Amino acid sequence: MLNLDRLRVLRAVARHGSVSVAADGLHVTTSAVSQQIAKLERETGQQLLAKNGRGVRLTDAGRLLADHAGRILSQVELAQAELEEHRGRAVGELRLAAFPTAARGLFPAALVSLRTDYPQLRAQLRELEPDDSVRGVVRGDLDLAVVLDWHNRPLPLPEGLAKAPLLDDLADVAMPAEHPLAQRESVDLEEFADDEWISWPQAEFCHDWLLFTLRSSGVEPRITHMAEEHHTQLALIAAGLGVAVAPRLGRGPVPEGVSVVPVRHTMCRHVYAIWRADADRRPSIRAAVAALQEAGKRVADV
Question: How many CA atoms lie within 13 A of 70 on its CB side?
Fold first, then answer.
């Protein structure tokens, strides 16, 4: 009997072409990946990986089994979806993820709605950045995730995922209250060419977007500070330490000493839910999407 978890590991190695990258994607150690592959080789009686320089490659048997693994895992997902659909009720466990401002701005209302309307559904939320959420959904560690595109920078999505829009989230520029532009009705990004910027951490999707957007406007950003949470960014701005892009979703009250000014050429994040297309018929997925869309409408109407 082939073990599904080990098939997921083999599929990840095949998809990434590397044991270490597959381990990062699965949030396990390279040793754990190697052990799972070794056990799978013993189960099948076949060598599945071979050394290739400093890396590895799939053998013919490995490629064959990885192809089957994709279909097997898809069929398992489909079977689970059809069983849930047959029951006709949103029940069981639903593993959710969202980037921080969506977790704060959308999920409290959505989770309360799900708990009220579907008492047999156990929804569990994790805060994750969009790239990590996409990998989690693809791997099957998550059932549904809320991610984002920027208006000028789409988030790459692999095949096999379904998506539904939740809301468009406008973003402003946050600056110290004494900044020369703080009293303006609107600003252009080019006007901050000489300012120090506060950004999201390096290698995050939003950090890369900020660099791309400022450079597209002819501004080479001087990023002085980096912080994960928008509340931390706003606290640094209140101390007079720079300016930042401030999306409105989940922002909450702006601290004293900070002014927030709209951008003349609108900056917008497209917020949406993603899930595996094989799970499209699960009542719990449909219920979660509906609850999140309703929460998104409430935010947009404020």
Answer: 13
